[in-house]
Amino acid sequence: MSPSRRALLSAATAATASVALAGCSGTGSSESHDESPANPADGGGGDPPPYAYLRVDTDLAAVWRSRGDQSRREARRYPGPHVVDSQSRADDLEYADIDGVDAVREFVADTDFDAETVYVDQREVPSCYRLELCGASWTSTDIDLEYSRVGLAYDVPCEADAKVTEARFLRLPDALSHDDVTSMGSSTGTGGCPGDHEPVAGGEPPGHDDGTTTEGDSA
């Protein structure tokens, strides 16, 4: 018999607890996708800027750049980040047909690319969890985000062994160049963020109406 979702979450919680960390409190991180920027941050370093949100119930990308020599599925196969620094690059984006996508398109279209940049960060997340965006920092060459992973409420349907994709569209208040940004990283802790940073557009994060539970609470 396959293990229950609750048993799998308990195992994940026990594994996470073996590492001393404190999520976005600054004392540690459970995983790191890249080194922190070596240069001092030109912007951010605290609360994230306004952002839009999408969640896809598969491990395919929520947004991707169109390619004439690729099929639609091939282009979506590998979720990845995008630095959108012009209207032409924004026009190249294609989106999954999911709830909230029209609001995200509008959010991107409303960007003043003479003074702002949209940074798209998307990553796979276990289906029974979601990420909270705790903070952001950036320079002309580096972008770094802080996340916290939390378990969904017990009554939110999910598959314990499945992956989903979450995408966030951050409107950075600086005119960056996609050619100059060479490092895009993040760190992920647990325990929730010290502040509440909800998306301003797009889809509804799962479990939002029922409140947030930590990984320990959902086990």
Primary descriptors:
single chain, alpha+beta, five-stranded mixed sheet, disordered N terminus, disordered C terminus, TAT_signal, Lipoprotein
Describe this structure in words.
With 219 residues, the chain is of the alpha+beta class. The protein has one domain. The chain has 4 helices and 12 strands, in the order αββββαβαβαββββββ. The radius of gyration is 17 Å and the shape is globular.
Strand arrangement, major sheet? 1-11-9-8-2
User: What is the mean predicted local confidence, pLDDT?
Assistant: 79
Provide the gyration radius in Å: 17 Å
Helix tally equals 4
Structural shape:
globular
In short:
This protein has one domain (5-202). It is built from 4 helices and 12 strands, in the order H-E-E-E-E-H-E-H-E-H-E-E-E-E-E-E. It has helices spanning 5-17, 72-76, 87-91, 101-109, and strands spanning 31-32, 43-46, 51-56, 63-65, 82-84, 93-95, 117-126, 129-138, 142-151, 163-172, 183-190, 201-202.
What topology does this entry show?
Blueprint: H1 5-17, E1 31-32, E2 43-46, E3 51-56, E4 63-65, H2 72-76, E5 82-84, H3 87-91, E6 93-95, H4 101-109, E7 117-126, E8 129-138, E9 142-151, E10 163-172, E11 183-190, E12 201-202
Parallel strand pairs: 3-12, 9-11
Antiparallel strand pairs: 1-11, 2-8, 3-10, 4-6, 5-7, 7-10, 8-9
